[in-house]
Amino acid sequence: MPAEGRGRGGGEFQAWFRTDGDCLDYLEWLRWPGGFTCPSCGCAAGWRLGDGRYECAGCHGRTSVTAGTIFDRTRTPLTVWFTACWLFATAKDGISALSLQRSLEIGSYQTAWAMLGRLRSVLVRPGRDRLTGRVEVDETFIGGEEPGLRGGRARGKKVLTGIAVEVKEPKGIGRCRMALLADASSASLHPFVTGHVEPGATVITDAGMGYHGLAGLGYVHERRSQRAARGRGDDPGKLLPAVHRSPRWPGGGC
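Now predict its structure.
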């Protein structure tokens, strides 16, 4: 374990999970405390294959102890994953992808960023209610200022984040939802909206092409053009006041 992960309790943690085999044994104990049970047919008999997967004695289906978890289909060693979990859980003020990269002593920032994304995804409460009423939706790059880059829309090492905020009447804001986006296309923005906003709500966006088609998904779509606002001499940043509340994120926020 890197030095950064050897805080209080770190020595004991390191002793428990020295190898990927130790990590797999622990995951197996968590998933099947009474022994292997096939997730497809429920049969409680099977055997471990040479590649580490299990084959069911009943239906002969094959599965792994990591299937359906954040560790599924990853090339990163489980020892690195477990250390990332430890750092993520014990960091008092949270941990950034850059800090995680340095702590894990891995070469790829994108790998650390993807790992954090998976870890954060499991903190979302399953079945939580979607936003309702009037909801402002926007997207922005988050990651702070970087030398040589200007404006909140300059990518650099920043991540594109979707933001949806309930607008309360006569004024004020309600609940907020945020999620990482692959890009600003409708293929990314539509699932973000449908996953976080209840159909029938009024969705307020800018005039970006990625939001076209929301009306066909069951929403009342209210578009506000930044270009038209500039033409009128208005401040385009005030078109979506709920998601643009934070002065720390130029071009957008929450």
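Residues 3-7, 246-254 have pLDDT under 50 and may be disordered.
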